[in-house]
Amino acid sequence: MGQGLSCRGSHEHGLFRAVQHGDLQTVSILLKTHPSLIHRTTVYDHHSPLHIAAANGQIQVLSRLLDGSANPDVLNRQKQTPLMLAAMHGKIDCVEKLLEAGANVLMFDVCHGRTCLHYAAYYGHSSCLKAILSAAQSSPVAASWGFSRFVNIRDGRGATPLHLAARQRRSECVHTLLCSGALVCASTSRYGCPGSTPLHLAAKGGSLDCIRELLAWGADRLQRDASGRIAYVVALKHKHGACAALLNIASAQPLVWPSSLKIISELNPEAKLLLEQALMDANKEREKNILKGSPYSLPSPAHSDQMDDNISEVSETELCCICFEQVCTIEVQDCGHQMCAQCTLTLCCHNKANTSTSNPTPPVCPFCRSAISKLMVIKIETHDDIDQDGTTDTTCFKPSKSRKFRNMNEGSSSSFKGLSSFGKMSGRSSGMIASENECIDDKPQ
Ligand SMILES: [Zn+2]
Ligand SMILES: [Zn+2]
């Protein structure tokens, strides 16, 4: 009997070892001769073979175990599922396979009351995070819980995945979560007293990227934590000077992604990417001004050089008639008016700031004043009639007029100050002016 036990023990040990090292052949042989081994667990942590395969990213072994009818939601000592361990270790193949096998995304462990989504966010594995979110969208979880409730799921201490990602400086996860509907101002408190927001935790972690993302999604710099501190004070306390500079309520407000606008939520991925990039560029410019002369000036990726490059390229394409700085990349559906991503975005953000966030008025086309129902990316075509002499006068306007408007825009950087009612139908008939007299004077403030 004793011999039998030790023999079984050595089989177990052999199996765990083979699983850990991805030795599929040994695993297959052992499971064929001793099928019950699949239910064995390690002595202390109670890890099943499936846990070990998931944590080590052994996708072939994991598939074999699942085919061998291993329960995808088997629990270890801490009541963690193999999916949690795969998300924790960033083993995307295993995460996907487990989700495919129907692993439950809504399980909570007993260490911190966390889900697989918390672990993916905490450890910054954004591909795993995306896979879990996408599975949650189509799983029974979405039906029973609601997807947005899942995105904002709280752990035992009231932290959402966004809190954890912000605290751990995982800016990519912060971005993905915000895009998926994570509440930017969620507080860790559960029973009335105010806890920390993701912005407080990002200030504590000292990640400029996370702070930039959170501010761009409308995080409130004035919100206070349980000790009555705003995020600025938290950043100062932890000696994150550059973060503090951005969080200082005396610093200029960043552009905020106009997420509540219907036209924004219905953007196609290409247009969304363009506008997001424009928002980040605008906010980085603003940061440069805030941090200028402070000891925290950023090692910024030579933004002004990029601008110069753009301008030389622009001479061959269509310049935006609002700022005369960037190329037109966005077209308003129906009227066909075009502008650059930066101006499109400022148009949407401007409107958002002036209206209640609950029911924002959609912005109107600055050229023809018709309501914007949809934004599209312009398909770049090559025109034969483009002026090739290297000047920027490739629009349909007369050079003098075009130059005049450029001058008016000098000093306004790439902000929206230069918005005029100047319009053009690029790629269609000749340029048109909606209402020439109200040019320039009609600046939104
Ligand atoms: Zn523009
Ligand atoms: Zn228009």
From TrEMBL:
Enzyme class (EC, first level): transferase
InterPro entries per the UniProt record, alphabetical: Ankyrin_rpt, Ankyrin_rpt-contain_sf, RING_XB3-like, Znf_RING, Znf_RING/FYVE/PHD
Keywords noted in UniProt: ANK repeat, Metal-binding, Repeat, Transferase, Ubl conjugation pathway, Zinc, Zinc-finger
Region (Disordered): 406-445
Topology in membrane: Peripheral membrane protein
Location relative to the cell: Cell membrane
ANK repeats mapped onto the chain: 45-77, 78-110, 157-189, 194-226
Sequence ranges of Low complexity compositional bias: 411-427
A single MF term (Gene Ontology): zinc ion binding
Pathway the protein takes part in: Protein modification; protein ubiquitination
Gene Ontology cellular component list: plasma membrane
Reactions catalysed, as given in the entry: S-ubiquitinyl-[E2 ubiquitin-conjugating enzyme]-L-cysteine + [acceptor protein]-L-lysine = [E2 ubiquitin-conjugating enzyme]-L-cysteine + N(6)-ubiquitinyl-[acceptor protein]-L-lysine
Matches recorded under PROSITE patterns: ANK_REP_REGION, ANK_REPEAT, ZF_RING_2
Residue ranges annotated for the RING-type domain, each copy included: 320-369
Annotated Pfam families: Ank (PF00023), Ank_2 (PF12796), RING_XB3-XBAT31 (PF24921)
Enzyme Commission (EC) number: 2.3.2.27
Name listed for the protein in its UniProt record: RING-type E3 ubiquitin transferase
Taxonomic classification: Eukaryota, Viridiplantae, Streptophyta, Embryophyta, Tracheophyta
